[in-house]
Design goal:
The protein is an alpha+beta fold and 180 residues long. The protein folds into 2 domains: 5-103, Peroxidase, domain 1 (Orthogonal Bundle); 107-179, no CATH class. Helices cover 59% and strands 14% of the residues. The chain contains 8 helices and 4 strands, in the order H-H-H-H-H-H-E-H-E-E-E-H. A 4-stranded mixed β-sheet has the order 2-1-3-4, with helices on both faces. The relative contact order is 0.13.
């Protein structure tokens, strides 16, 4: 996953705190939960990026939204991002943290493309299978690609696993062309 220098600076700072506290995995899971919340509804980012609110009001929103969540240092990092006027980059920074955290723990990130939304259980089952194949722990991010028709395609580092119907059609087409 590609990350900006800006995202990497904030993410590196948070990662060093997570490692120092020996809670890298816990921070990563917590941050992934925040990312999923932001993915479901981007209104929080729009609100935090609003010019109509003061920085203190924006930080109060962080406290209210994440009041029951653990790991104050993650909330404090969000507040520092707000103080520095970088609210619109929160999601990028959090994604950069997950990437760095995964790398620290030897986890490969990749994408699983499918024609329709996969359940969390399906993604976990596929991740487990791919992990065994490549000998590394794998974390897959789902992406919808309606052109695949069915099946899925996985891209991790230099590996591509394509079981999509589109891929099978392309293979069949190539094989028929070779026969002529």
């Amino acid at each position: 996953m590609q990350m900006t220098n800006l995202g990497k600076r904030y993410a590196s700072a948070l990662l060093s705190i997570a490692v120092q506290e020996e809670k890298n995995e816990e921070y990563r899971e917590y941050v992934k939960m925040i990312i999923s919340i932001l993915d479901e509804d981007d209104s929080l980012i729009r609100l935090l990026d609003s010019a109509n609110l003061t920085k203190d009001e924006k930080k109060a929103i962080i406290d209210n939204v994440f009041h029951s969540f653990p790991y104050e240092n993650v909330k404090n990092t969000l507040k520092v991002i707000i103080d520095n006027g970088r609210s619109r980059y929160i999601k990028d920074i959090l994604n950069a943290f997950v990437s760095l955290s995964n790398a620290k723990d030897g986890i490969s990130e990749g994408f699983i493309y499918s024609a329709q939304k996969l359940t969390k259980e399906e993604i976990e089952r596929i991740s487990s299978s791919i992990s065994k194949k490549i000998g590394k722990k794998v974390y897959l991010l789902p992406k919808i690609d309606e052109e695949l028709i069915g099946g899925f395609k996985i891209v991790i580092d230099d590996y591509v696993f394509d079981t999509s119907i589109l891929h099978k059609i392309e293979e069949l087409k190539s094989s028929l062309i070779e026969r002529n």
